[in-house]
C-alpha cells in the first residue's frame, strides 16, 4: 500500500499545512546554515530546495522517481539523483553539509543511513537535521508506540516514535547545543562526527 509519503501531491498538501503553523520557519533554519557542497538527503518533493541561496552547491537525493520528478519541477537547476540514504552513491568525504528534513523517521535502517551520512561528510562537516521524534510525555509516547503499525502503513514508512537524537549520537555524532531546539515532537539540531 502506498502511503502519504509516496503520493507527492498529498505529501505536499500536508507539508504546506504544517508550514503555515511554523514548520516553514524551521525549514529556513535547516537550510540557512548549510555551507559548501551540500547533500539534501531525502529531498522529497523539493520543498527545501528553493530555500537555498542562489549559487549554493546542492545535490538532492530521493528514492522515489515520482517524488523526484516533482522536486525537479520545483528546482530545475539542482542536481537531483535517485538513491537510498542507506547506500549513498557518493565517495567518502565529499560533502561539507548534509541536510536531512523529516527523513530519518522513514529510513528502514537509520543506523545504516547515519553511517552513510558520516561516511560522505568531510572532516569537520555538519549534519543539519529536522525531525519529528518520540514524544517525551509518557502518555503520548505510549500512544505513539501503540498506533505505530497503523501510522507506518498510513504514511508509507514513517515511524513517529523513533528517538532520532539518540540514533544520531550512537552513529558517532556529537549534537551541538547551539541551535538545538525542541517544540512538541519536533527537533532541530546540528551534529558533527565525533573525533
What is the overall shape?
Answer: globular
Biggest sheet details: 8 strands, mixed
Distance between the termini: 42 Å
Mean pLDDT over the full residue set: 90
- Supply the number of structural domains: 1
What is the annotated CATH architecture? 3-Layer(aba) Sandwich
Strands, helices and their partners?
Blueprint (H helix, E strand, L loop, with lengths): L7 H25 L4 E5 L15 E6 L2 H10 L4 E4 L12 E7 L8 H11 E12 L5 H18 L8 H7 L2 E3 L5 E3 L2 E8 L2
Parallel strand pairs: 1-2, 1-4, 2-3, 4-5
Antiparallel strand pairs: 5-8, 6-8, 7-8
Key features of this structure:
eight-stranded mixed beta sheet; Rossmann fold; 195 residues; alpha/beta; 5 helices; single chain
Would you mind describing this structure in some detail?
This protein has 195 residues and is of the alpha/beta class. It has one domain: Rossmann fold, CATH 3.40.50.150. It contains five helices and eight strands, in the order H-E-E-H-E-E-H-E-H-H-E-E-E. It has helices at 8-32, 65-74, 110-120, 138-155, 164-170; strands at residues 37-41, 57-62, 79-82, 95-101, 121-132, 173-175, 181-183, 186-193. Strands 1, 2, 3, 4, 5, 6, 7 and 8 form an eight-stranded mixed sheet that branches. The longest helix has 25 residues, at 8-32.
Amino acid at each position: 500500500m502506498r502511503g502519504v509519503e509516496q503520493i507527492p501531491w498529498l505529501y505536499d498538501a500536508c507539508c504546506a499545512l504544517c508550514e503555515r503553523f511554523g514548520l516553514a520557519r524551521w525549514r529556513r533554519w535547516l537550510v540557512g546554515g548549510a555551507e559548501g557542497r551540500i547533500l539534501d538527503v531525502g529531498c522529497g518533493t523539493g520543498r527545501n530546495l528553493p530555500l537555498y541561496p542562489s549559487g549554493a552547491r546542492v545535490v538532492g537525493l530521493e528514492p522515489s522517481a515520482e517524488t523526484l520528478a516533482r522536486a525537479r519541477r520545483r528546482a530545475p537547476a539542482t542536481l537531483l539523483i535517485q538513491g537510498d540514504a542507506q547506500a549513498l552513491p557518493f565517495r567518502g568525504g565529499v560533502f561539507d553539509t548534509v541536510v536531512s528534513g523529516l527523513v530519518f523517521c522513514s529510513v528502514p535502517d537509520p543506523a545504516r543511513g547515519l553511517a552513510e551520512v558520516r561516511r560522505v561528510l568531510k572532516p569537520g562537516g555538519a549534519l543539519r537535521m529536522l525531525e519529528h521524534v518520540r514524544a517525551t510525555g509518557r502518555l503520548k509516547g505510549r500512544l505513539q508506540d501503540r498506533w505505530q503499525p497503523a501510522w507506518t502503513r498510513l504514511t508509507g514508512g514513517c515511524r513517529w516514535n523513533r528517538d532520532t537524537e539518540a540514533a544520531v549520537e550512537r552513529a558517532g555524532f556529537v549534537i551541538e547545543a547551539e541551535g538545538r531546539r525542541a517544540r512538541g515532537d519536533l527537533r532541530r539540531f546540528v551534529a558533527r562526527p565525533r573525533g
